[in-house]
Hints:
Layout: H1 2-23, E1 32-37, E2 42-48, E3 53-59, H2 63-68, H3 75-91, E4 98-100, H4 109-119
Parallel strand pairs: 1-4
Antiparallel strand pairs: 1-2, 2-3
Helix pairs in contact: 3-4
Amino acid sequence: MHKDKVETKKVARDRIRKRIRKKIHGTSEKPRIFVYKSNKYIYVQVINDDDGKILATASTLEKEFRDKNKNTRNLKASQQLGDILATRLKKNKIKQVVFDRGFYPYHGRVKVLAEALRKSGVSF
């Protein structure tokens, strides 16, 4: 019975992710920002789906992030991660993006990350 619950959850997550990805596509002008949350860390990638290339990345595992913040699971960490990614996007001259939250609901750490990107001048 326990295995069935886990499988049901995985299937539901895949269904949600596919439904969102049907509508979202990153191009060279507007790349896709993909968010992945584990229990400890947050990973963010900027992807050009036309070429299949990753343009920029940021995560709470990086040395640059770890020097500023000890905790990697709170809202403050998400905000700082958004600021770090925004500076990398500015360096690559990317101003407009498409935000892909994956199967995560748009609240908490995902929302704070998105708001930090918007506050830094990235529009989506």
